[in-house]
Amino acid sequence: MGLPRKLKNINAYGANQSWLGVIGEFEEPKLALATDDWRGGGMIGPIKIDKGLEAQEATVTMGGHTPELIRMFGTTDVAGAPMRLVGAYQADDGSAAQAVEIYLGGRFSEIDLGKSKAGDETEHKYKCAVAYYRRVVDGVEEVEIDMIAGVFRVDGVDRYAEIMAILTS
Fold it and tell me: What is the pairing mode between strands 33-38 and 47-53?
């Protein structure tokens, strides 16, 4: 029997600075295939046909006022608000902590500044439409997705390389 690795702490980097002590929460993009149902002649039911990837979104919640991130809103660059998120995961079984790094290239599609009241908690939420995503665990790349360049690599295998080779030759 084992114990799960749980997030012990987190930091964020963006706008040329560290957000240690400011970041409250991070929601990674969902990894989802875009599919359509297909039922051809002779088939007894439909199957899901791979049509690429779904759009990705990530959300970062900061514990207070972060004007540097607000100033990134409205950038015309689809990857104009890059961020790096670093998490330390550890199981309570004496095993070593594990580094998980998330690299995002995107832009804020929504900034929720929430409610402001003197003496109360203040949270700002930044929703990012993701154009680039990379997840690295202990220095090993698990996933890299570059929507514009056509890169869809999982565990070192570029699942879209064959198609891109046809398109660029």
Answer: antiparallel
Cα-based distances in Å from 2 to 20, 94, 95, 99, 138: 30, 11, 11, 19, 20
**Is 101 in contact with 86 (CB distance < 8 Å)?**
yes
Number of helices and strands (H, E) in the chain? 2, 12
Q: What is the sign of the dihedral through the CA atoms of 54, 60, 61 and 64?
A: negative
pLDDT in tens, 4-19: 999 999 999 998 999 9
Overall pTM > 0.70: yes
Domain membership of residue 1 (yes or no) is no
Span 73-99, pLDDT tens digits: 999 999 999 999 999 999 999 999 999
Distance from the Cα of residue 16 to its chain's centroid? 19
pLDDT at 1: 61
Distance, CA of 115 to CA of 17 (rounded, Å)? 25
Domain that holds residue 90: 6-37+46-167
- Chain centroid to Cα 137, Å, comes to 14
